[in-house]
Amino acid sequence: MSVLKTNPMTLTGPWAAGCVLDYHSLSATPNGDPYHPFEMTYTEIGARYIGFKYWNDVTWSRTFFETVEIFCQNAGGGQ
Question: d(Cα 33, Cα 28) in Å, to the nearest integer?
Answer without folding.
Answer: 13
